[in-house]
Specification:
By secondary structure, the protein is an all-alpha fold. Helix content is 77%, strand content 0%. The chain is built from 15 helices and no strands. Helix 2 runs antiparallel to helix 3, helix 3 packs antiparallel against helix 9 and helix 6 packs antiparallel against helix 7. The protein is flat. The N and C termini lie far apart (51 Å).
């Protein structure tokens, strides 16, 4: 396939369109959502088809994000070399690729998993690719707060893939990621403020300034820590999870304070990188706690 610039697109370019690192983190949370939904082992067919369907739909949404943001991407150092922005992949081919991924994911979820998971996944795809990328991102500095709900869905999707129903604990997993998203992404926005301003994207540091954003990162971090204690309070998780959540939260709070009062120009990126590690470790500890410490809770349904 030939891009606008005349260069031939490779399979790596199409893989990059799916944002594989972001999708991998989403699948990790979906996978753990599956295991948390049952006291024993998740059926292998659900592990295979559920995660494949969710991953394909997430890749489709990511591709649409590349497509819609292609003009903005050329103005930012972080994104100027993306496949569509450079012309290695034509917009028409990217759209066809996104449709193929999305349809394939939906068919897999409907046929091999259940309709509830398929519809929730579609809602998440539309929420990210259309509502957030097309509208919210350019309409309000609260874009990541509102749009973050779509990106928080994977653990619930994993839960419903196993059980076929929405449970309060599955929604609690969504709430954790929802509370995590603002301090995670605003830390990056602080570091990339000038680029967002150049691209005319109304991220919070652009519209309200760095200090205002840093304060909100700190406040949202505190909210996030409170939310992450809720699995222990509700009986979903045990003491191992509580200990891990508090330790990881204390480290996140440390970085938020450093970002708030420090003068290190790289503090934003350091906070952003830690936030990714934080979420991965939090969910892994939750899984370990589920099998090693926490009592079965399925009778609470």
């Amino acid at each position: 396939m030939i891009g606008v610039s005349g260069s031939k697109a490779s399979w790596r370019d199409y893989l990059e369109l799916t944002k594989p690192r972001v999708v991998a983190l989403m699948i990790l949370t979906a996978l753990i959502g599956m295991f948390l939904a049952v006291p024993g082992m998740v059926p292998p067919s659900v592990l295979l088809w559920g995660n494949l369907g969710i991953a394909l739909c997430a890749g489709s949404a990511a591709t649409v994000n590349h497509l819609v943001d292609r003009h903005v991407d050329t103005k930012m150092a972080r994104t100027f070399n993306r496949p569509i922005a450079t012309g290695r992949v034509e917009p028409r081919n990217a759209l066809l690729f996104a449709v193929l991924l999305g349809l394939s994911g939906m068919v897999i979820l409907v046929v091999f998993i259940n309709a509830l998971t398929a519809w929730l996944t579609l809602a998440s795809l539309v929420g990210y690719a259309v509502v957030y990328t097309l509208f919210l991102k350019r309409a309000t500095p609260q874009n990541i707060v509102i749009g973050g709900l779509a990106g928080a869905a994977p653990p619930l999707l994993g839960w419903t893939a196993v059980t076929g129903e929405i449970h309060g604990y599955g929604l609690l997993l969504v709430l954790i990621i929802f509370a995590w998203t603002p301090p995670h992404f605003w830390a990056l926005a602080v570091h990339r403020r000038d680029e967002y301003a150049k691209a005319k994207v109304p991220m919070l540091p652009v519209t309200h300034g760095d200090r205002y954003t840093r304060l909100h990162i700190l406040l949202y971090t505190i909210i996030m820590i409170v939310v992450t204690v809720m699995p222990f309070v509700t009986g979903m998780s045990g003491w191992l999870y509580l200990l891990g959540a508090l330790l990881l939260g204390a480290c996140f709070l440390y970085w938020a304070i450093v970002l708030m009062i420090g003068r290190d120009p790289n503090a934003g990126m350091a906070t952003f990188k830690y936030s990714i590690l934080y979420l991965m470790l939090l969910f892994i500890i939750m899984l370990l706690d589920h099998y090693l410490v926490a009592p079965p809770f399925l009778t609470l349904k």
